[in-house]
Every structure is written in structure tokens, then in C-alpha cells.
Write a structure and sequence with these properties.
The protein is α/β, with parallel strands linked by helices. It is 36% helix and 27% strand. It has eleven helices and 14 strands. The structure holds adenosine-5'-triphosphate and magnesium ion.
Amino acid sequence: MFAIESFNVSKVYKNSNKKALDNISLQVGEGKISTLLGRNGAGKTTFIRICSTQMLPTSGKILIFGDDVLKYPEKIRQRISIVPQEGRPLRALTPWDHIYNWLKIHGEKKDIAANKTTDMLNRLDLYSAKDVPALNLSGGMKQKILVGMAMATESPLLFLDEPTIGLDPVSRRQVWSIIKDWKNKGVTIVLTTHYMDEAEILSDSIFIIHEGKVISKGNMNDLRGTLNYQIRIDIHISKTLNVFELKNLVDSFGKTINMSSDSIRLFTFEHNLREISEIMVRSNLSFSVAPITLDDIFVNLVGDKDMT
Ligand SMILES: Nc1ncnc2c1ncn2[C@@H]1O[C@H](COP(=O)(O)OP(=O)(O)OP(=O)(O)O)[C@@H](O)[C@H]1O
Ligand SMILES: [Mg+2]
């Protein structure tokens, strides 16, 4: 069974004449981490709001574990948890209050709720701040409260709408580790993020949403196929070559884009590497080689038209 199946879901907000979602049909595999990627305003949060029964679609149908969101919202709510993009903790309550009470509301007994709260606060490095009211916590610590609440319930389906926004690199990794552990327990996770490294590390499948439509989907390998190139070479201009001359020198090997005033990026194939390196060495240019990343694929699909 799929955790989520959507059929031609569209949404036009009341005060707008534009489609925030335009015929979205997709499937989210049970027990998988599926990531929605898209530029600001692409429709990711709108899709999550509809799946999590917070808002009705204008048309189309969504099944959550086989149940229609329009017919069985109460049943679905018992099986999901969400980190909402616009969420804020209550100012007067502490991290402990938020997570413990949330677990109690979800029906956990006192001692189990206390154990799970302690575990989650430790995992998020929040234990030492457990009794500090949210108004006296930093932005990232407040965000971690929201992540802790959603994840502590271990609901079968988790919606994480930019869960790591504002988190430091160590805290992000702590959240990644919980996400991976929960996946191993069989939890289905729907993630949105603007951090491409995060999406690349965590996702089993990725949906790229652009202007309310799914324009590409698959795992990293499938998406790599959309760019057609295998590697990228960042080349720095030298005293003797300007950007224009440098582009001319390597243009025939693939596609070039300007990265900054003193470097270009060449997308190309592995079999060209030797010849390109020889040219670089001859021209006394410094360069670095790396496989293409999700960032490259994303920009190619929805961004800089210069690259397409
Ligand atoms: N409450 C609302 N009323 C009217 N239009 C809205 C509302 N919420 C979102 N929209 C519009 O719907 C479209 C999709 O917004 P959405 O919040 O789903 O984007 P997103 O992909 O989550 O973007 P971001 O990455 O910035 O969070 C945008 O054009 C936005 O302006
Ligand atoms: Mg959003």
C-alpha cells in the first residue's frame, strides 16, 4: 500500500486566481523518505496542508494509507504528525512541557511520556534547556521543540516542512539521525527542504515541484539522468585568460555557466576529463572536479535557464 496517493489534486486559494497546485498526482511509498523540492511558492506547503487534513483541495482526491482525506479526516489525524512551516512554540512553555504534554494528548501514559520526552530532548541536545520557557530560547532551539513534538509521537506518517530551517550543522545532523532511525522503524516521512545536501542524503525519492506541478521525480540516479552530464569542473580564470576566453576554450566539452567573476563551471562527461585536464595544465589554470549534485540538477530543472 502507498502511504499517500494523490490524484489530480489542484488548489486555488480563495483570495487568489492562480493555481497553487495544478493537477498533482503522485505516490509516496510506505516506510520511505520522500522529499518535495521546489522554489519558494512552488506549492509544497499547500500540498502538505491538504494531505494533513488542514485544508481542502479545490479538486482531486488524496488517499492516506488508503483512506480519503475528505471522508476520514479524524482517522487520518490519528496516524500523522507534522512540523508545520509556520509553527512557533508557546512562549511561556518549556521544551519539556511541549513534548511531554503533546505525548499525553496522544494518549501516552505518564511514565512512557516522560521517558520518550527525555530521550527526544537528549537526542536534540535540548535536555539542559528543558525547563527554560520558549521565550528565552534561541531561534534554532525553538525550532527543535517543534521537531521534537512531531517526532516523539512516532506516528506512522510524518510531515516535516523545512524541519531543519535555522539549525546549526550539528543540530541538523541530530535531526537527520532521528529521521533515519524512524524510517528504520517503518515510519513514512514526507520532507521539504531547501538544503540540497539534506535532500540528497535522506531521500529515497524526490518530487520536484514547479509552479504547482510535479515536473520530475525519482531517486538520485533517476534525477541525475535529467542533467545528461556526469561531472562538473570548476575552473578559475587566470591572469592571461578572461571568463569569455576560458568559456571558449572548454565550451565544446559540454555546458558552461558563470559561477562568479573569476570562475566558471563546466558540466561534462568523465571521458573528457583527461583532455580537459591537459588543457587546464597547459593554460596554467586551477580547477576542481566533482560528480554533479542535486543542487546542479535542481537549478537545471527549475532555475537558471542559461543552463538548459
Ligand atoms: N493562505 C494563502 N492564501 C493565498 N495564497 C496562498 C496562501 N498560502 C500560499 N499561497 C500561495 O500558494 C502558492 C504556493 O505556496 P506554498 O506555501 O505552498 O509554497 P512552498 O512551495 O511551500 O514555498 P516555500 O518554499 O517558500 O515554503 C504561492 O503562490 C503562495 O503565494
Ligand atoms: Mg512552504
